[in-house]
Amino acid sequence: MALITETSLRAQLAKGIPNPYPVTAEDKLTPAAEDFLKSRGIRLNRKADDSPPIRLDWSKSAIPNIPVGVSNRHVHLSEEHVELLFGSGYRLTPWRELSQKGQFAAEETVTLAGPKGVIGNVRILGPSRGSSQVEVSRTDGFTLGVHPPLRLSGQLEDTPGIALIGPKQAIMLKQGLIVAKNHVHLSPEEASRLQVEQGDGLIVQTLGERPVIFADVVARIHEHFSLDLHLDTDEANAAQLRTGDVVRLIGKNGCITEALRG
Ligand SMILES: [Zn+2]
User: What separation in Å is there between the alpha carbon of 164 and the centre of ligand 1?
Assistant: First the structure.
């Protein structure tokens, strides 16, 4: 830790004071030194690497549990693609409600066809969306012979396409095949209770026989969401998790809280 005074700053004036002015998290500035920088329009740049571990205000008995939802391979379709695959004017038939409000698994399924192989009975999730998106596991990618990148839902730039076979006809998607990046859905209330912000990289630890830490799970907050960790089947199988199991939230943005170390 360094104590930064006005005198020490004045001594640096001759060779120039960088803007922003780099300091570590432990460095202390005297009020006069802060005024000195402020009056010259110089901002502080606290280096994140040196910041102390975050302290989330969880007591040991109350490390938050997050329920797990395992997502099997599935397809989201635009209305246009629903009609091409199933016939004009066709609407999806809700079969089962999903954990997130308004989302449903449809009765309808399609077949995915890649250069190496096909996967049948792939569930369509509704309601229909602006653009079609196909979420598979890395293992599915080997079956299909396509290796899609890891992406958050909706981020489809530079993703490969895939052929979809429906009862009426087959279509070739130009893009939209992804391996879904793991994420946690939270309502705004749950986010504030867990001290989580939009886009935080959460660290969760699985319990049980084969404990696994997922080190960068994206927090997605929306008023229609409710607390649920979404993993694909490869991740769930590796950690021996099933839908309805729980994991522990043990930190965020690269820092594990002291809650679990103790
Ligand atoms: Zn999700």
Answer: 22
- Of the candidates 20, 25, 50, the one whose C-alpha atom is nearest the C-alpha of residue 37 is 20
CA-based end-to-end distance of the chain: 26
Gap from CA of 96 to ligand 1 centroid (Å): 16
pLDDT digits over 63-107, tens only?
Answer: 789 999 999 999 999 999 999 999 999 999 999 999 888 999 999
| CA 192 – ligand 1 centroid, Å | 19
Could you report the per-residue pLDDT of 231-250, keeping only the tens digit for each? Answer: 999 999 999 999 999 999 99
Q: Global pTM? A: 0.75
> Ligand 1: distance of its center to the CA of 180 in Å?
9
Domain 182-261 has what CATH class?
Answer: mainly beta
The H-or-E segment that residue 35 falls in is: helix 31-39
CA of 16 to the centre of ligand 1 (A): 50
Domain ranges for the chain, please list them. 3-47, 71-180, 182-261
